[in-house]
Amino acid sequence: MPGSRGSAVGRTIVVTASCALLGALMAGCGVSPAAVSRPVYTYTCCSASLTAKPWHPGQQVRVVWIEQRTTANRSHLVATLTVVLTGPYRTVSALKTANRAGAKPDPRLAVAQEAQILSRPTRPPVSIIRIPAGATPGYYNLDTIVSIAGGTVSGSSVVTIVP
User: What count of other Cβ atoms lies within 10 Å of the Cβ of residue 46?
Assistant: First the structure.
């Protein structure tokens, strides 16, 4: 049946051409702005001098975040910066034991106001941690937390509070 074979071949050519055209269009439109790698800035905390000296009850401590350039497949990321101080502990060993992975968190002595970075600031972000006037002398755990795009990175330092 020559007529039915010809129409089947014709349909095959049309379907193949349509798929090729659709594939070419999709390939041409496949690069979206979100897939382009752009500079993104993330943050880490802080200079070593922050924890080198003892802190005092009633003190307001400036935590200056350090900007780090990286790349990501996003043109806009919101960063949330958090600082938490827990304690007191009698020894550094007790602090580390209490703060090991999976341990129940200790009561928070102070929490800085959370900073949300929506665009690259002209100056480094600063968090202020207020040490209560009645803070007991001892060792404290200073947690710094950076949350970006659903991921979280944290670090800890030991801080000494003296009268």
Answer: 22
